[in-house]
Amino acid sequence: MKLRTALFSTVLLTSAKVSALPAPMPQESGFSGTVGLTASYIEYSSNLIVGNGLDSLSDNQVDSIWESANRQSTGAFAPYLDLRFTFANSQTQLVFGNLIQDAVRFDLTQRLGVRQAVPGVGTLGASFVFSGLPSEVWADPYRTGAPRQETDRESRGVRLDWERIADSNFSLGYTYRDISIDEEQSGQAMGLSKQDQQLLNRNGRDHRFELKYHQALSQSQYLTPSLIYRLREADGDAMANDRIAMELTYTHLTPRWTYIVNGYAGRVNYHSANPVFGQKTDSTELGIGLNLFRHGLWGYDNLSGLISAAYYQSDSKVAFHDMGFTNFSLGLVYRF
Fold first, then answer.
1. pTM, rounded to two decimals
2. What are phi and psi of 45, to 5 degrees?
3. Is 60 in contact with 144 (CB distance < 8 Å)?
4. CATH of domain 2-335
């Protein structure tokens, strides 16, 4: 097992799901936010994704395009930052920090933006999103019998949010990102034609829509179902896909404890057959997260300890495209 300090967040279903409930606008001007640090044990398997510039969780060499990736393990220290400054008179808030929804793909995305509360309308938000640390993929993931070359995968775009639409329990989010692979060489080592290589081009654009409903079950319990639609407009038709997913988050808040349980299920449908395998690489996705926060740690009201566990699995029609992720974390979170 490797132990390294990683700048990607492995708190996929922890800090991310605390924010399943819309953050209320503070009534006083000034800074607010959350900082945290976790120590995690991770098991990860993917034939396509290397990791990031500081850590690698994928075999450098594979001998077959018909087998799933070997499972790798590592330890990591993961920071989390969500920093905000509020102008109370105008109910305007500046935000900066992590966007964790793609952490399972080792894509550390940052956001820099603004939120504006409008009476009778809800809270509107707009952010610029960008890769704080590019994730790494294999330039030609289908190369067998020889070492593969790593290359950066970068993304940048915009995120728009409408929280508590018309003071209702609905919230809507949209994220657009432009995705760039530095050295796109998919299929070259197999001697594919230029036309087939173009079908494997992973550069392109990503659109993500999410509709949430926030239901209070009691004064301390909340249920948040989400419907997610994601369109990947890759330059190669075999990489372009539609993803439809459902997410359900249960939150139980008490003065000393917070319990969060999150479940995820999705389906990915590709637009064209992958020329390497002669068929589409459609997949099903399942994930679950369990999280426990202990507040008022060591007598400090704003300090919380956390224990979290997360599991994610993507099963493709082609075993080579299977992906898995398991995470166990211990950490500290400070809110101010």
1. 0.88
2. -140, 125
3. no
4. 2.40.160
